[in-house]
Amino acid sequence: MNSTRRVDRRLLTILLIVFVQIVGAGMVLPILPLVAKRQFAMSDQVITLLIASFFAAQFLAGPLLGRWSDLSGRLPVLIISQIGTAISFVMLALAQGVPMLFAARILDGITGGNIIVAQAYITDITPREKRTQSLGYIFAAFGLGFVFGPAAGGLLSAAFGTRVPFLIAAAATLATVLITRFALDETVTSEMRADQRSASRPRLGLRQVLGNRALMLVIFIAFVGQFGFGLLQSTFALFGDAVIYAGNSPERITLYVGLLLAVVGLTQVLTQTLVLRRLVHRLGDSRMVVLGSLVRAAGMAVFAFLTAAWQAPLGSVLFAFGMGVMMPPLQSLATRAVDDRSRGAVLGAYQSAISLAIIFSTAVAGSFFARDPRLPYKIGAILSALAALPALWLVIRPLDKPRLDVSGPASSSAGPMP
């Protein structure tokens, strides 16, 4: 009984940390692209490159942070990444030129392992059969943060100017440092660290990933789906300015975009708290990935072809529901494809694949948007639908046990999918 209470306490604490972190990030999301355009006269192409710079840095740092958390523990990496994020928000608030904006986003990407390590922490304290549900709580906290964050960012920006939300986001992130330091216990034991350090080679090198067909399939699905997501994410505020709310004042557009993102967050919360557990029980992880891909495609199609502003919340609801149904099962499938001792490493590799998809998609999104503001959403809808096709393979041949013990020799190969 005491163990159960302990796990519950740690789970609630890590979810609170994620929530506070995302509130801070959510306050910035509807503001930064519009600030870059209005105050720094950046083109659509350069704005999306600014967004891509964060994911490029995260792509390079993600596996290292995951591996580092396996070797040195979750808490040191979590604290350092939070401090880096806080500094980056201050840099955004004080930026006087484009180079400072890029430097801030790159710093946040390099140290942006807080969500990765939070996911690894939860898998440390959660049995395999409950991981999808527990990882779903991460997305619920993520969604709840986006209920308050973007709306608060829009309101604060309209009332006090664009720099205030960045400073408040920095303060919120620093608050999570204190919560992490005083409310969480380390989950990586000294025995686990010694076992990691005694390995003659990395637990999850490129050869092991490529040889693990089940893991490669999961990563491919995530890559294709997130490419479409990157097209939406990098142009959403610009799309609101040019299409959804065209003709409104800048203050109203910032507020409306923030509220629209709050709809995304609220839908994610309701999906994770009211729907996910029932769907996991009825459908299983693989079928949920298929369902989520198709619903997300429908949401992007709404944006691609909308004719009135009132249709935008429908697109937000469908998109957020699809994301909420799809992503936790994918992460759970990724952790089940490798040995338990490398959970941090596999989540780092998984996050890097997602970041790589978003790097490419955000890098080209500005060009697509400049040609036609609706084009990124049309392409995203198609890619999201296509992601459902390889997911069907996991339905036909389910993954129900680890495919590869990556702690073994590099010559080990994954067995055939059943």
* Sheet with most strands: none
Order of helices and strands: HHHHHHHHHHHHHHHHH
The CATH homologous superfamily is termed MFS general substrate transporter like domains
Please tell me the overall pLDDT: 79
Oligomer: single chain
Proportion of residues in extended strands: under 5%
Give a structural overview.
With 418 residues, the chain is mainly alpha-helical. It has a single domain, classed as MFS general substrate transporter like domains (Growth Hormone, Chain: A, Up-down Bundle). It is built from 17 helices and no strands. Helix 13 runs antiparallel to helix 17. The longest helix is centred in the middle third of the chain and has 34 residues. 59% of the residues are buried. The N terminus and C terminus are likely disordered.
What attributes characterize this protein structure?
418 residues, mainly alpha, Growth Hormone, Chain: A, 17 helices, 0% strand, disordered N terminus
How is this fold's topology laid out?
Layout: H1 2-28, H2 32-38, H3 44-72, H4 74-94, H5 98-110, H6 114-124, H7 131-160, H8 163-183, H9 190-197, H10 206-211, H11 213-244, H12 250-283, H13 285-305, H14 312-336, H15 343-371, H16 375-386, H17 388-396
Helix pairs in contact: 1-6, 1-7, 1-8, 3-4, 3-5, 3-15, 4-5, 4-6, 4-8, 6-7, 6-15, 7-12, 7-14, 11-12, 11-14, 11-15, 11-16, 11-17, 12-14, 13-14, 13-16, 13-17
Question: What's this entry about, in short?
Answer:
By secondary structure, the protein is mainly alpha-helical. The chain is 80% helix and 0% strand. The longest helix is centred in the middle third of the chain and has 34 residues, at 250-283.
